[in-house]
């Protein structure tokens, strides 16, 4: 809201946009198209709409950046396996840890096959990050499904902390999906 402007002084359309943003940020529920559309739009209302769009784009970018984080921590977990170090980052992928464990138990040591398979997953998450930043809802959905399946690995292993963090990241990815939906509704 502009400095020195009270809520009552805002045009009706700007108040509706403000209600929409509050509704979006608090509930992440479905948005009625009537809440977003207006009959007349003046320059202050357009500025407000642009600010709202920028906030949604920021939410999408922040959500998409988690795919980069997952990929980066998975690389570090892979390096732990390569150098036979114990420990792992809980936000990294459990799939790669399973692959590494299976290769090590089958061949006695970490090898190129495990490294190749690990980096397929890393490359997939980097690709999903770029696609999600371009506001492709499918990237969030595909990444979310893969990360949910990955969370089940930690659930089965009774790694509660890692499982909880996976659920937290899934919530952030969901926020990205909802932001894309809201952005598209504003532009409709």
From TrEMBL:
The chain crosses the membrane at residues 64-83, 113-131, 138-157, 163-183. Keywords: Membrane, Transmembrane, Transmembrane helix. This is Uncharacterized protein. It comes from Solitalea longa. The lineage of its organism: Bacteria, Pseudomonadati, Bacteroidota, Sphingobacteriia, Sphingobacteriales.
């Amino acid at each position: 809201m502009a400095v020195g402007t009270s809520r009552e002084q805002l045009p009706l359309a700007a108040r509706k946009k403000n209600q929409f943003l509050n509704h979006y940020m608090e509930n992440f529920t479905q948005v009625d198209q009537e809440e977003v559309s207006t009959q007349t739009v003046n320059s202050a209302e357009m500025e407000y709409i642009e600010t709202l769009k920028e906030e949604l784009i920021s939410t999408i970018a922040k959500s998409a950046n988690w795919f980069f984080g997952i990929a980066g921590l998975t690389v570090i977990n892979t390096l732990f396996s390569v150098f036979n170090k114990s420990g792992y980052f809980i936000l990294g992928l459990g799939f790669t840890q399973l692959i590494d464990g299976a290769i090590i138990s089958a061949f006695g040591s970490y090898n190129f096959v495990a490294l190749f398979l690990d980096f397929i997953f890393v490359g997939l998450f980097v690709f999903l990050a770029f696609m999600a930043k371009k506001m492709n809802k499918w990237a969030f959905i595909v990444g979310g499904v893969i990360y949910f399946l990955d969370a089940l690995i930690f659930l089965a292993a009774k790694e509660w902390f890692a499982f909880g963090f996976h659920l937290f990241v899934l919530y952030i990815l969901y926020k990205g999906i909802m932001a894309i939906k809201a952005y598209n509704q504003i532009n409709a």
